[in-house]
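B., you asked whether I could sanity-check this one before it goes into the benchmark set. Here's the sequence:
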Amino acid sequence: MSDGPFRVDRLWPDQELDLDLDAAMAGYRPPSADGRPAVAINMVTSIDGRAQLGGTAEGLGSRADRRLMRLYRAAFDAVGSGAGTLRATGIWLRVGKDLAARRAAEDRPPNPTGVLIAGSEPVPTDTGWFTGDEPRILIVGSTNPMTAAPSGTELLRAPDPRPAPGWVLDRLAEYGIRSLLLEGGPSLNASFLAAGLIEEVCWTVGAHLLGTDALPMIAAIEGGSPYADEPRRGSLASVLRHEDELFLRYRFERAG
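And here's what the prediction gave me:
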């Protein structure tokens, strides 16, 4: 059963008021890229740019934002996150029964492939991410102590202690994955930005001010950002408003 219905106003590119959220998103398609899968990140922050409230994103967005998150997921071939997000939240990356049925009717797998990216730290395997019947790929760094993944999950080991974004995308392409939606955390987002491998940012601005030192949407890039003096410029693709919340999308040309 669908959440909602949730009503939104489309403010850009063509203005239309009082739309059903699902209808407003009906024409959405992930970005495309040649060769490697296209990458989008989907995050929610406060007005002052903080992506955590009490250590997680819970409470920053509304029920409408959670529905939008599922609509985004349903459009992509794979949905991924970093192991730090798994440790903090237990992440659940599926789309829900109604959207799974919609994907199946389109001759697609009911849920996107789950992708989890870890470095050298052990990965907790007793979470909901490792359940369900969707394909799952666990990517770990070269020094990670894991030698096997739970049943139903494929384990890939990168040649470096931290899996390089380009290497990750090359491996996912071998599985037929053409689009990847990342849902954090900020350090993983930063690694893909540093590699120039983000085509879209899906950003919910919740109507809150925090004034804390919580993590932002994208962490500072280690060693300095290549965009510190010449920022990456995106183009505004769409703006939806639900009550006091904004749902923004920006598109970017691939740099890497």
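One thing to flag: The first strand starts at residue 7 and ends at 12. Otherwise nothing jumped out at me.
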